[in-house]
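Notes from the pairing session

We agreed to fold both candidates in a single pass and log them together. This is the raw record for the first candidate, unedited. Please don't reformat it; downstream parsing expects exactly this layout.

Candidate A
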Amino acid sequence: MMNKGLRTALALVLCMGGWTSLQAMPTRPHIPQAPVQGTTLALSPTPIRPEAGKSALLQSWQYKALEDSLWYATSVPSLVQQSLIDEGRLPQPWYRDNEARVQWPGERDWVYRTSFTLETEGVDPELRHRLELEGLDTYADIYLDGQLIGRSRNMFVPQRIDITDLLAKTREHHLVIHFTSPLRAAHAQYLSNGFNYPADNDHAPIHYSPFTRKAPYHYGWDWGMRLVTIGPWQPVRLSSYRSGRIDDCRIETEISWHERGKAQRAHLSLSPEVELWEARGGHRLVAQLYDARGKVVEEATQELDSQENHRISLEVDRPRLWWPRPWGEPYLYRLELRLEDAQGYELHRLSRSVGLRELRLVNEADSLGTSFSFEVNQYPLFIKGANYIPGELLLTRRRAEDFDRLMQDVAFAEMNMIRVWGGGVYEDDAFYDAADRAGILIWQDFMFACTAYPSDRDFLDNVRTEAVHQVKRLRHHPSIALWCGNNEVEEALKYWGWQRKFAPEHYQRMVEGYAPLFGDLLPRVVQAHAPEQAYIHGSPMQANWGRPESFAHGDIHYWGLWYGKQPFEVFDHRPMRMVSEFGFQSFPSMPSIARFAEPEDYGLETPVMRVHQKASTGNGLIREYMDRDYIVPKDFEDFVYVSQVLQARGMERVMRTLRSHRPICMGSLYWQLNDAWPAVSWSSIDYYHEYKAMHYTAARAYAPMALGVRLVGGDTLEIYGLLDDLDGRSGVRLRSRVYALSGELLTERILSRESLRPNSSQLLGRYSLASLGLSESLNSRVLHLELKTSSGTSELLWYAVPTKALELPEAKIQHRIVRQEAGRAIIELRADSFVKDLVIEVPELCAVRLSDNCFDMLRGQRRQIEVIHPDLRSGTKLRIKMHTMNQIHRP
């Protein structure tokens, strides 16, 4: 029996989706085969010649809603929503308030089909053929020539199906994929569960997302719209193999050290997974390791007498190591593994990039609590980075070059790690390849976030298949630093009030379901397939921001800032071990807002702007924090600007503070790097790839050499030198100057001369404000700190009062274009007055890059800023728009 509450919820969902009753939900769809009369486009069979070791993308696809009669042409990879947008049948989801208008495709079933013809008569008896569907989103039945050959129940698991026997029957073949709505497919599981899971980021009355192995953020989040996508989101191929193939190869590396950071020898142990189906023997594996110039540095051959486990060893003397930023070159070798027959004919080849490095997670009890840090090539690494979410809701929009640009963005901000957060997707191969090349470490979550999950056998078996595939796919990347079971699930079970919200038996079932998945299944998979890589059950592991006694144990998501309404200064005297989430919201820039909204939508509480703000208290919290330290503008454009400065300056302060707490604290991963759609969010890069002000201040806070300051007792300033170089800096001079905001230099002194220790944070001194020259007229003074070495300089401007209390003069800035050419321009700025929080916009260019932004200028100072954009031309007029806090103080 269905209780009254369930009947009411079910009726609501059915009405929203346009369904009339449970009987209207077909269980066995009609699967069309050959082209039918009246279709909009006839199928064009693609001739395929089956050759060993070759793959052919299947093309000439069509799709339609199950109940429709007309077919429409599309291409694969494909998502229904993207095709509908391209055809004009679905509006742009993120424009204005279109979100509600684009939900219907996710509530329907869809069918894709294609045909192909084999060029040869019959099929070569020595070949085997596989249909390889690399990713189906999400519930799909696969038919070839009318026969059900496979089923997908997991977006993250490919379907690789041997179709050799079917291909032998005829030359022409028809492939049909029937996709069931994820909402319909999960409904029976929801009913049998007996209660609605606490997946509150799932923006629907019934939370289907916990049952479905699909990207959680597709159902909505507190920074994202809801778009439940459907379709073959990864390539579909027909591959042919002769005699055998190499399915995978596990690579284990052991390094012998001459001294710390210098390798004497690297031992590579290869464990290939080989499938052979030809009776005669003589097969062999040939392994060759190439350096970056293409020279073979080591090779080995192994005869294959059986299909048992095989191991091949390679030794590399004086290897070049893979280093993360900024320590050195992320050097990559290339491993080629070839399967050959007795005559030396190549049957199959597997190629992998290999980085030789040693990486260790240090998560151990110590005198303070429980450490959480990483060692790379025997050196402790302070983690500087951010949390990453998929940059699109429609995942087929992304290309390999997008991931290269992403890693360039990460490198610009001087990061060495990003966390692939558990509410998104396991990323494309191109993402991890780009990270390997850029020297960016990856903290990799499994795709579970912010809710409890089922623990029945079917669900766990589904997850096991997913985890095995993803661990084996990614384990060879030198960028992979950590596997993490989930995001905030245990924290939610303990601290989010579910004990009060749910019946005791339901809450107990959620608690008991945690260990089988995150404490048993996932660590067993990592141990079995990548034992050299670290695993933690979830993030945060133990610490909770509302319980100071837990701060010294493992990583923490510190949301006392923002949700707890605590000030940015809260981090000054609360050292934590690894802060893996912390953040603050801001609006995207006005040029970005103009791309998804109209002028009548500009305002904090307009319907359109509310649609693009998914955090329930978001705009109110921005305003509340702004009122503490800034003048709150009445004009919407000014408010947008001040929101970005508020985020940028506050978060920069936290990043510098966390670095100053080293070695107690060993990492800073802010929330969040990027956006999946245009929204008010915690990101430092908006959906249109515009850097917000925070991305520029993050680059300064994360610089290899930087300054940190902490105010102690209200009248003493602690000054820290922050250095990530493996070599120290000698001859270091710390100088202080105090300026009046009117421009006069009031005091100047050398505070210290000493060396900076390598790879450390170092207290350079404690100074009273009076001794620095800050004893009076604090609202018209600025302290300029300069840390100067023979190899570079780091500067910091510090103010003793909030920005809203500063007596800012009228802004007087001159600018001229010094040089402009294809792709770049140089702008020279001259400040004829003190300028606070200068933010430069180039309104006509989307995703423009500046060498620096969001900075202060002393009177008389000159700066040159590089503007980079592919559309820049030598004769193009470049329009620059400048915002300053001076304008807010003197409108």
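Candidate B (folded immediately after A)
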Amino acid sequence: MLEATPLTEGWILRHDSEALPAVVPGCVHTDLLAAGVIPDPFLGRNEAEVAWVGRREWTYERELRAAPPGHEQTDLVFDGLDTAAEIRLDGRLLGRVRNMHRSYRFHVTGLSGRLSVHFGSAYAEAEAARGKLGERPAAYAEPYQYLRKMACSFGWDWGPTLVTAGIWRPVRLEQWSTARIARVRPLVTVEDGQGVVELHVDVERSRVEAELAVAARVGGVRARAEIDGTAGVVRLQVPDPELWWPRGYGEQPLYEVELTLLHGDAPLDTWRRRVGFRTVELDTSADAHGTGFALVVNGERLFARGVNWIPDDVFPSRITRERYRERLGQAAGAGVDLVRIWGGGIYESEDFYDACDELGLLVWQDFPFACAAYPEEQPLRGEVEAEARENVVRLMPHPSLVLWNGNNENLWGFRDWGWEPVLAGGSWGEGYYLGVLPRVVAELDPTRPYTAGSPWSGSWRHHPNDPAHGTHHSWEVWNREDYADYRLHVPRFVAEFGWQAPPAYATLRRALPGEELAADSPGMLHHQKADDGNGKLERGLARHFAVPADDFDRWHYLMQVNQARAVAAGIEHWRSHWPVCAGTVVWQLNDCWPVTSWAAVDGDGREKPLYHELRRLYADRLLTFQARARGLVLAAVNQAAERWTGTLTLRRMSVEGELVGEASVRLAAERRSVAEVRVPAELEPAGPKEFLVADAWGSPRSSGAESGGGLRALHFPAPDRDIPYPRPEFDVESAPGRITVTAHTLVRDLLLQADRLDPAARADRGLVTLLPGEQVTIGVSGWETPDAAAARAALYCVEPTR
């Protein structure tokens, strides 16, 4: 039977004349940090102090003993090497590698001695390729498109430039005899009510003449097949399987598949995975509105409630199984049902996809290409196909994986970013996205759809980012316009959009020790990587609020409010236009370090107000006021499986708390549909001194409800800077685990910044608006010394413009 021995101990990292202890899996930066050679690059402006690390060559070493007798062959297996490396054993070259996204296997039978893995500088490797292949345009000046490495190692508009090297995934010795399982390609489908698992098996032999077979089992069903040469297929059919569903649509039953390679009755090797039975389609049919883009799982059309995912750490080897579970659990807790793994990162570890399988989170997987023209010549072309083949097969068992996507923004970049004349007919990646990758997916994984890019209109007949066709990235709003302009278009599927805000206060205090915080303080500016990021933040805020000049705490709070308001404007509008619009994927869920960014969860794992707002926006049921040609309507978005009926109360109120008008109507929204109720003309606000409140009773309570047992929507007809708010008055009571606020006036967007009470403290809700006389109880964990005065100091809300 194949035996595997992890090689995690005994490694050193050569640094100048020193031998530093090394952690494997790991990377050079984390080893240097542990040894005290470099400062923490996440703190202050230390990033610049460690830039030299990415320009150096590095060597990992350890002793490798000869494997004990009893097996015919011994392999040295690396699951991931970052990136350009030579592997030697006692000076003997085992191989050269140049792809972070692949695994590598070397025969070392009978060999022992000093094992070394020598990493060249990723910069040197990329610049050599650029010299050979020629210049290619990109969104950033760094040469990330010239080698197969996590692009955002070279920095992004939310990430630091920390160009890594190291043995970033596990390494082991494998000993085996006669034959081993080289690859299993599982095709999992549902046919005529039966779950079908078809296992395509490739084997490697040490004895050509040996007769081999495979035995497999799943869900109480067993089957056996012979191996013909080095390949075989075994098919199993499970009657009446329980279907795997996205969260919110059903359960996530998983079935263990076990396949054993046999020589006679003797087991040689075993492969085990969990699978789920479900069907997935991508509906891109044309209609009166253009070209659709809708995921269909088990025959059910979905409005995808998505978030974009970036690597959760600049140093991916630090991301543990528990950290994946925490972050993806946060996504599920916010009502998310789809996570898009963005193309400037990596193919994530099995731990990521396992968590998504269990949580019911659909996975949209980009191939790692982002924001650049990629050469298609060798050696890159061969590397691209090899990595695609390996990772498509590796990830196939996971039912959560529902879509392969060729790239991020490269088709759009070719058309709109001035690439075409610069390239002058040279290769730029189109052959990957429209040739190599769809061919690989069609050959290896025909059970899943493929799309050429994001954004992509489906063909060159339409602009790549045409909102009427396929996927759309909405960035004009953040870059140049007011977030109210989200309401000017109804894209078929919004795969990227977002708005920035700084991280939580405690995150800033940890990341910028000793600095007096200000919007333009040196550390704040260093931890703002977007081009003119602070300028866009302040121009976006000025359209709605007076920008605080010298009050950082107020600036920080209002930027958090504006981020939540901006994202809400988009999602509420687009959800109200289901099924024309079939999904929103917010940029972004997470951060890889402490930074001002578009994330809902900051680099220390703290939830911004946007996170809590997503819980309301992505709930099965949502109320939202929307402008239509016929006037103001209240849209009742019902993504639940049951019909939604109840009483709808509309109130026209003054900001001083006076009830100006009221009406009650019946609400009826069919399952997976949107119902609209026309707001009576006499209830529409007369100006900035008035606003509308809608409460839906008889419906399940949602995280968006401020009081009572229903859902609420608010409509203020003017920007906050033009609304004559009263000075907010409220009482605060504190007790273990909770803070209660009772409003005496209108209190707009009340926020408890729990991390100001204690860095470990968390609140269970974000922004909440209270009418006079209403009360809210905020759950607080991690705060051991409740105090009403301290609680009041950590509470912020919108105040009248001075």
